[in-house]
Amino acid sequence: MFERLLREAPSAPLLRDLDFVAIDLETTGLHARKGDEVVAMAGIRIAKGQVRPDQVFDRLVNPGRPIPARVVAIHGITDRMVAGQAGVLESLTALRAFVGDAAIVGYAAAFDLGFLTRRRQGRAVAFDRPALCVLRLSEYLDPSVQDHSLEAVAGRFGVEILGRHTALGDAMAAAEIFVRMLPMLEAHGVRTVLQAQRAARRAHFARRLRRGL
Questions:
Q1: Of residues 31, 165, 188, 204, which has the active-site annotation?
Q2: Pick the CATH number of 2-212 from 3.30.2320.30, 1.20.120.450, 3.30.420.10, 3.40.50.1820
Q3: What is the pLDDT of residue 141?
């Protein structure tokens, strides 16, 4: 299935015909490699171009370490709120089961994948699904725009963010933006996962070059 999604066109399935899960995490900080951990995770299914609010994964996670006050001020999740929750590995296993054979989409997806795929206690959960990034696709579709924050992208696509800096609120926003992107991507000739990944990489590289000039 993985190989099928990353085939070259025209044999690859079309984006609008695929199942995705839009994912978002809240964490203790920004640095997965330095020991920051997940405190909340959410996913919402997208089935053939339609967001499915009846198919949602949403849970708090015990990170096994204190949550800094500066981070609590952003997402509002405290040590007391996560004290009785399942740990990271158990929660990641449950999220991976929810994803199943779907592809993954998210805003700043590389950040979330860094936490999802990190080894812990010698173990890792295999989030080995193709992934697309709403932020990078926004850079592709709107290369002349400077602001690609989630709020700005949501505004351009007419999406209201219900619960900013909550895992479910941000996952829902990414899902709604992504389905609105699909017809625009198709109009640009981007119809498959592989084409979308390549377009996003080119756009991000071009943006970095422009910033360096």
A1: 165
A2: 3.30.420.10
A3: 97
